[in-house]
Specification:
113 residues; 2 helices; 25% helix; globular
């Protein structure tokens, strides 16, 4: 299993592209997932979130640039292609400790048409 923060983030995106709910296994038991004004704490809540998202939207992230790693933190700018042919621009910030995600905060970027 990946242990360096950048490797963990890379594995996270690989599992998301595969639609693999085992992405949750990359998180600590008491991890937090923060985004869209909500915080989910603990693997059970995070698993429930990912199961629903993977079933409903089939998210497939693709990189918008290189991962930016500094110590335990990794930032990733991504485009997330969804099953309804919509693409969402997002920034994910991981905190990785002991080879597992301690927290993941995600931010959706506004589109201007």
């Amino acid at each position: 299993m990946a242990s360096e923060p950048e490797e963990v983030a890379t594995e996270y995106f690989a599992r998301m592209r595969a639609g693999d709910v085992s992405v949750v296994d990359l998180f600590h038991e008491d991890a937090s997932l923060v985004g869209l004004g909500t915080t989910r704490t603990g693997k059970a809540a995070i698993r429930e979130f990912y199961q629903g998202v993977i079933e409903r939207a089939g998210p497939s992230p693709r990189s918008a640039g290189p991962l930016l790693a500094d110590g335990t933190r990794v930032a990733a700018e991504v485009f997330i292609d969804l099953s309804d042919e919509v693409s969402v621009h997002a920034v994910d910030i991981f905190v990785v400790e002991e080879g597992r995600i301690r927290s993941l905060s995600y931010f959706l970027c506004a589109h201007s048409d």
